[in-house]
């Protein structure tokens, strides 16, 4: 099973990740870790989505593990006319961080596919000034 840095577990088997100040230091103005639906797609894949508390954007997708690689596929949408762009950030265990393309302005939806070595340890939705 893919390992995640779980900070709390809700009912219905949904794992929630904490906010990270590291994202803010990298230029992002906000970050929220995604909620992972454990076992939603079987042993090698997990569905995930951004928390409902995030009003400025939404992201949804799947993480799949195949051999030494992990692929994170999904989409991200900008939901706020705030002059900022929304994107998904993935930290792969062996090959490091990757970001999706930015979704902006408000209403823009971007599909993405990111592949890296090792598990996708952290997946988060972030926003950054346009």
How do the helices and strands line up, and which of them pair or pack?
Elements (H helix, E strand, L loop, with lengths): L7 E2 L4 E3 L4 H5 L4 E4 L1 E3 L7 E5 L7 E10 L2 E10 L5 E9 L3 E4 L9 E9 L2 E10 L1
Antiparallel strand pairs: 1-2, 2-4, 3-11, 4-5, 5-6, 6-7, 7-10, 8-9, 8-11
Query: Residue-averaged pLDDT, rounded?
Result: 79
Number of strands: 11
Percent helix among the residues? under 10%
Structural class of the secondary elements?
Answer: mainly beta
Q: Main beta sheet: strand number and arrangement?
A: 7 strands, antiparallel
The rounded distance between the terminal residues' Cα atoms is 37 Å
- How large is the radius of gyration? 14 Å
Strand content: over 45%
The gross shape turns out to be elongated
Element-level helix/strand string: EEHEEEEEEEEE
Number of domains: 1
* Uncertain regions spanning at least 5 consecutive residues: 1-25
Q: Quaternary status of these chains?
A: single chain
Strand order of the largest sheet: 1-2-4-5-6-7-10
Count of helical regions: 1
Keywords, separated by commas or semicolons:
7-stranded antiparallel beta sheet, 4-stranded antiparallel beta sheet, 4% helix, mainly beta, 130 residues, 1 helix
